[in-house]
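TA notes, week 10

Several of you asked for a full example with nothing omitted. So below is the full record: structure tokens for the whole chain, then the designed sequence directly under it. When grading your own attempts, check the secondary structure regions first.
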């Protein structure tokens, strides 16, 4: 199965490759980017290589997909977005995304996430039809909450202490978007 490539007005979304190690390291070594993430701050490029391998294996094994977000003007990798996992039987997927801070507030997250949601609801993902997309945020991640709300996700509730990383429990806000709500 070939990796789907998407284009928006300003962005190209394509496969993350080993050539992207430096950019992935830059993103995930930034404490502002991973403040709400369940991953430790990267301290070596080997961690970036390992993450790229995880993304590749996830796609090759039909478990999920993660795109590089690149600016068309200079082909710079500015972030990633994708479906971390999917359940073909339940027609459900879980979405995630991040951008380098210099690109925050410029509409790139909205543009890229909107494109992958559209692909999912047009039944063009390798997993088959998707009925529901879920996103989880940590309370305080207001920018992510706004992005999801602007994309028509509904806040569905708070799952108390349902995440554990960085040696502590985290509440998670659950957001959901159904196929018929996106159109």
């Amino acid at each position: 199965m070939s990796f789907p490539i998407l284009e928006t007005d300003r962005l190209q979304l394509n496969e993350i490759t080993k050539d992207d190690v430096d950019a992935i390291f830059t993103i995930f070594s930034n404490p502002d980017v991973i403040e709400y993430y369940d991953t430790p701050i990267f301290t070596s490029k080997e961690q970036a290589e390992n993450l790229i391998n995880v993304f590749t294996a996830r796609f090759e094994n039909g478990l999920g997909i993660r795109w590089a977000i690149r600016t068309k003007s200079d082909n710079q990798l500015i972030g990633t977005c994708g479906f971390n996992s999917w359940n073909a039987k339940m027609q459900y997927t879980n979405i995630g995304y991040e951008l380098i801070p210099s690109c925050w507030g410029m509409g790139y997250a909205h543009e890229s996430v909107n494109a992958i949601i559209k692909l999912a609801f047009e039944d063009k993902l390798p997993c088959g039809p998707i009925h529901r997309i879920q996103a989880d945020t940590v309370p305080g991640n207001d920018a992510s909450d706004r992005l999801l709300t602007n994309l028509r996700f509904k806040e569905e509730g708070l799952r108390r202490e349902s995440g554990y990383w960085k040696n502590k429990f985290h509440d998670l806000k659950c957001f959901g978007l159904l196929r018929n709500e996106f159109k």
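The mean pLDDT is 95. Use that as a sanity check on your answer.
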